[in-house]
Amino acid sequence: MKIATFNINGIKARMPRLVEWLEETQPDVACLQELKSSDETMPTAEIEAAGYGMLYHGQKGFNGVAILARGSEPVEIQRGLAGEAEDEQSRYLEAEVLGLRIASIYLPNGNPQPGPKFDYKLRWMKRLRERAKALLEAEIPTILAGDYNVIPHDDDVWDPRAMASDALMQPDSRDAYFRMLGDGWTDAIRSRHPAGGIWTFWDYQAGGWQRDHGFRIDHLLLSPAVADRLVEAGVDKDHRGREKASDHAPTWAVLR
């Protein structure tokens, strides 16, 4: 079983690349982020034609997450996180898919920091951890997949100095991420590529892709029962270099 996460950076603008990727790699489950489309205008026909059921939590012009399942319909469990009723940003969607609990996550960026956006990021990560702990306590086989907007290690970025002041690399951001790992989650990519040097994002500006100036912010966190089934994990890097591609590359894990 192949589970993937892909920040599509605008589902309408990237639909040809999305369908192309689905057809070429055929993930069993695909978590999408940054849809930038409301529920009312979400394009679904092309995805259905590619053989995927789709569950989505959209937001006009911003954010938005979805879960796709090949030959199946994801069953919604929860949208949004508890703990901040006034939070209307579409960043969390959880479903039952093919015998697993899957969450598609688009964690706040947090820039500029310090400031209210960074404070919101840290609160959001605390709320995510609470939901994640509940899933662990219930012993539900779960994958938390998405764009975490956290660079966990210095070897997860082309040049740590270039990102030192960014919200993605702040000690508080990293601490929140590692606290989740300490609760019992496994970082799929890190477990299979412990030396680092694996990027999932390359900025459109400053020749990021052409110079391979990237970093890793798209993660798949596996609960213990799922981590025991992990075979391989990687990144579909070549899809980042295609015409009108997202600035992220699809990131995936294969399970027994």
Automatic annotation (TrEMBL):
<feature type="binding site">
    <location>
        <position position="248"/>
    </location>
    <ligand>
        <name>Mg(2+)</name>
    </ligand>
</feature>
<comment type="similarity">
    <text>Belongs to the DNA repair enzymes AP/ExoA family.</text>
</comment>
<dbReference type="GO" id="GO:0006281">
    <property type="term" value="P:DNA repair"/>
</dbReference>
<dbReference type="InterPro" id="IPR037493">
    <property type="entry name" value="ExoIII-like"/>
</dbReference>
<keyword id="KW-0378">Hydrolase</keyword>
<dbReference type="GO" id="GO:0008311">
    <property type="term" value="F:double-stranded DNA 3'-5' DNA exonuclease activity"/>
</dbReference>
<dbReference type="InterPro" id="IPR004808">
    <property type="entry name" value="AP_endonuc_1"/>
</dbReference>
<feature type="site" description="Important for catalytic activity">
    <location>
        <position position="218"/>
    </location>
</feature>
<dbReference type="InterPro" id="IPR005135">
    <property type="entry name" value="Endo/exonuclease/phosphatase"/>
</dbReference>
<feature type="binding site">
    <location>
        <position position="247"/>
    </location>
    <ligand>
        <name>Mg(2+)</name>
    </ligand>
</feature>
<feature type="binding site">
    <location>
        <position position="149"/>
    </location>
    <ligand>
        <name>Mg(2+)</name>
    </ligand>
</feature>
<feature type="site" description="Transition state stabilizer">
    <location>
        <position position="149"/>
    </location>
</feature>
<feature type="binding site">
    <location>
        <position position="34"/>
    </location>
    <ligand>
        <name>Mg(2+)</name>
    </ligand>
</feature>
<keyword id="KW-0464">Manganese</keyword>
<keyword id="KW-0479">Metal-binding</keyword>
<feature type="binding site">
    <location>
        <position position="147"/>
    </location>
    <ligand>
        <name>Mg(2+)</name>
    </ligand>
</feature>
<dbReference type="Pfam" id="PF03372">
    <property type="entry name" value="Exo_endo_phos"/>
</dbReference>
<feature type="site" description="Interaction with DNA substrate">
    <location>
        <position position="248"/>
    </location>
</feature>
<feature type="active site" description="Proton donor/acceptor">
    <location>
        <position position="147"/>
    </location>
</feature>
<feature type="active site">
    <location>
        <position position="106"/>
    </location>
</feature>
<feature type="binding site">
    <location>
        <position position="7"/>
    </location>
    <ligand>
        <name>Mg(2+)</name>
    </ligand>
</feature>
<dbReference type="InterPro" id="IPR036691">
    <property type="entry name" value="Endo/exonu/phosph_ase_sf"/>
</dbReference>
<feature type="domain" description="Endonuclease/exonuclease/phosphatase">
    <location>
        <begin position="4"/>
        <end position="248"/>
    </location>
</feature>
<protein>
    <submittedName>
        <fullName>Exodeoxyribonuclease III</fullName>
    </submittedName>
</protein>
<feature type="active site" description="Proton acceptor">
    <location>
        <position position="248"/>
    </location>
</feature>
<keyword id="KW-0460">Magnesium</keyword>
<dbReference type="GO" id="GO:0046872">
    <property type="term" value="F:metal ion binding"/>
</dbReference>
